Amino acid sequence: MSGHDKGHLEREIELHKRLASHYEDRYRDAFSQVFQQEWNRALLAINRRPVDRVLELGCGSGILLKELKARSRFVVGFDVSPDMMRRARPLGAPLVTGNGSVLPFRDASFDLVSCRGVLHHLPDVPAALREIHRVLRPGGELILSEPSNDWWLVRFARELMYRLSDKFDEDDEGFRSEPFRALLHSLGFGDVRMERFGYSAYVLAGFPDHLPILRYVPGNVCLTKMLVRLDRLWARVPGLRGMSLQLLFSAKRAG
Ligand SMILES: C[S@@+](CC[C@H](N)C(=O)[O-])C[C@H]1O[C@@H](n2cnc3c(N)ncnc32)[C@H](O)[C@@H]1O
Hints:
Shape: globular
Structural class: alpha/beta
CATH architecture: 3-Layer(aba) Sandwich
CATH class: Alpha Beta
Radius of gyration: 17 Å
Bound molecules: S-adenosylmethionine
Strand order of the largest sheet: 3-2-1-4-5-7-6
């Protein structure tokens, strides 16, 4: 690992140590839970087969781990930050601490690897994807949701936020869909599919710790449900769907 990558990794550990104490604040409000359920639903909907053994990479406080546990026989949570994972402990899944670019699991151990908002924090994304490929069984599937940098306005806003907010590292970066798809192919993943997610509800209901506007709006649960429906339509409109804030990908290790 280069000195620059090592510095980034160390800063991520420090960053998440600091964020861990109030991270759950993001998921506290009822309207935010409505949105988070929708995000998990959209991500899990792109997994195409029932699965037994799952690795939730970058599980953080366990928001997706909970859902995965309900659907699969064996789920492991993995994260670089023990402080973030402390909140996932009551879920009762095995939790392993480590760097996503060097996974401490045997080859072909998992049917599914999931990542929700994790890869953009990693200093070496190709290394992490190589490791994910290695620990997936042949035919196993990677599902992920990561910040999109496809639309110029989102790219600009994200760049500004990552530089100015103390909740991100300056080296964190979103992804553009076509280079990311090409990267997956170049690393040996096949059957790569992409969906788009995250428009109005993502901005207004997704991060009340950053943008607390809806906390002060009466009927915020109903409003979030309406925004969620609007966003499902938005994701289908040619010419507008590219404005999404998240990219959902699924890719398989050749079987
Ligand atoms: C934005 S949080 C997302 C957490 C969780 N997936 C969620 O959706 O709430 C990013 C997570 O990635 C973890 N992370 C950052 N760098 C990592 C690395 N190199 N290896 C593994 N996990 C890492 C952080 O500790 C944090 O829990």
